[in-house]
Amino acid sequence: AKIKQVEFVKSSGRAKDCPKNALPEIAMMGRSNVGKSSLINSLVRKKDVAMTSKTPGKTQLINHFLINKSWYIVDLPGYGYANAPDSARTDWSTFTKGYFLNRDTIVTVLLLIDASVPPQKMDLDCANWLGRNNIPLTFVFTKCDKKKSGKSGVKRPEENIKEFQDLISKKYREPPPWIMTSSVTNLGRDDLLLHLSQLRNY
Ligand code: GDP
To answer: What are the residue boundaries of the EngB-type G domain, all occurrences included (predicted)?
Structure first.
């Protein structure tokens, strides 16, 4: 399950520009600031691998990283920029949906959910859309190291996760697998890599 080698392959603006070879791919998506870059860096044990995806002009592209020359981590554009005006918000409904519907090499989509905040409508909408379209999904809760803050109304990760799962279980006969992670403590890192290797079947 170990990641020994990682190689940035390309940034694509459309699904049809993605790499042509049919290697299995693990796609990662979530709201901007969810901790996607940090998680990628923690998975591959390198700093700044995911920087490529953060350089101006590339945040809105599909970024392919080749792992151990045998499978891809695909970094998808973040959605729902908190401080952007509506017009500048990522509409993940356009080309990201095209990617999901046109890549039959997707092994699972890792939908990153920030465990330090209560369930967000955008995340639930995203999960439900993937479910409706039969795209295999794994929930990855991020920032699980965060403690309850002093402010009233702020909940602990465990409570937010429970609420999220309750909402999801109403929609799915068999809810997708989920993994708790932290890029600060590396919680869940090995579980996630094991889960991915089991899904890839090698
Ligand atoms: P991205 O926009 O989804 O790529 O998110 P980043 O990886 O850039 O992280 C956004 C912010 O959340 C940064 O300030 C990170 O330091 C912080 N962050 C990311 N992962 C974790 C985590 O596991 N725990 C904590 N406490 N903070 C995190």
So the answer is: 22-202
